[in-house]
Design goal:
By secondary structure, the chain is of the alpha+beta class. It has a single domain, classed as 2-Layer Sandwich (Alpha-Beta Plaits), CATH 3.30.70.20. Helix content is 27%, strand content 19%. A two-stranded antiparallel sheet has the order 1-4. Strand 2 and strand 3 form a beta hairpin. The longest helix is centred in the last third of the chain and has 13 residues. The chain is globular. The N and C termini lie far apart (35 Å). The chain binds iron/sulfur cluster (SF4). Iron/sulfur cluster binds next to helix 2.
């Protein structure tokens, strides 16, 4: 039987990181908009050509999960994430 702190503690996922940098390769992007649908506070679409725009280069931790999902959903691999 552990201490109350041990019993009540939650273990953060090992994938959880403090910092995240995002880069969009606009030459690869075809403007499918998946990233904008998944994380609209981080990604937007250029009105001129429909390709993705980055609204936030270093999103807060509350946005990391959505950004990872957007990264995995991009059909062209145009989103690069660097987590530290
Ligand atoms: S999901 Fe990928 S291809 Fe689609 S708009 Fe976003 S960066 Fe561009």
């Amino acid at each position: 039987m552990g201490t109350p702190r041990q019993r009540g503690a939650t273990v953060p996922p090992t994938t959880q990181k403090a910092g995240m940098d995002i880069v969009i390769d606009r030459d690869k992007c075809m403007g499918a908009g998946q990233c904008v649908l998944i994380a609209p506070e981080v990604f937007d679409q250029d009105e001129a050509d429909g390709r993705a725009l980055l609204l936030v280069e270093r999103p807060g931790t509350e946005q990391h999960e959505a950004v990872r999902e957007a990264h995995e959903s991009c059909p062209l691999g145009a989103i690069t994430l660097r987590e530290s």
